[in-house]
């Protein structure tokens, strides 16, 4: 039985019906350098090439600047697979990406706690 909340890709008993590497066509290296804290945002232009449903879902999450980590969490996909999907969208002009901006201390505890709080609110 397919879970109504998760769509056709998850089954209540069996779990994920499609392996993550299938979503990325077996690719494990994105063409665009993306970090988990990289921010991506939709450009407003539609992809010219046919993209899979995961590409569409990822694009739908990028109305405003969104981190790669947040998108991976929403899609429930491994970060590397999410990076490949987002890289495809950057390559076709549907997304822009920018490297994370670190303040004076890139391991600032308050910044990391704020990111964690934001991720928890989204789940």
From TrEMBL:
Q: Which InterPro entries match?
A: DUF742
Provide an example Pfam family for this protein: DUF742
Which PANTHER family does this entry report, sorted A to Z? DUF742 DOMAIN-CONTAINING PROTEIN (PTHR36221)
The name of this protein is DUF742 domain-containing protein
